[in-house]
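New to this. Please check this fold:
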Amino acid sequence: MLLIGKKAPQFQAEAVVNGEIVKNFSLESFGGKYVILFFYPLDFTFVCPTELHAFQEKLSEFEVRGAQVVGCSVDSVFCHLAWLKIPKVEGGIKGVTYPMVSDLNKDIAKQYHVLDMQAGVAFRGLFLMDQRGAVRHQLVNDLPLGRSVDEVLRLLDALIFHEKHGEVCPANWKKGDKLMKPSQEGLSAYFRS
């Protein structure tokens, strides 16, 4: 189900935040911020730690844009905590500081329509919410296909620019590239320049 333009499904769940268990974690606590909620299949797997570290490595870039990164899997908070103690070179995620939500009963993955019912885990879903909590971008990858964190930053930049200036961001647009007005004249001017 497409969630674009709709209010992001809300939930309360346990999460690990900066190495501590939070009992009633909620996206509502990030009101006024952009939120990147990403789902990954399982702790202690292979593609997943590469993604979690990739988000951590770019975390300051999300923060300067007023965005909060949140990870979510069907593992318990205790599993998250155990994985956080293992060094990166051993397949762990030591050093990850953004919230990691526990979706043990799989309700959150169901709400976001990313649950692989057969495998019992979430697909690699990613949702970009604006400052009002509406979903503005969603992407769902199959289990073996890792995401590009740079692409998530590019899309966040595009959304911020569009909200600020009203212009639209054409294909392959990056911050600093030329934009266009959302009209036939704007399209023509874009291709002429």
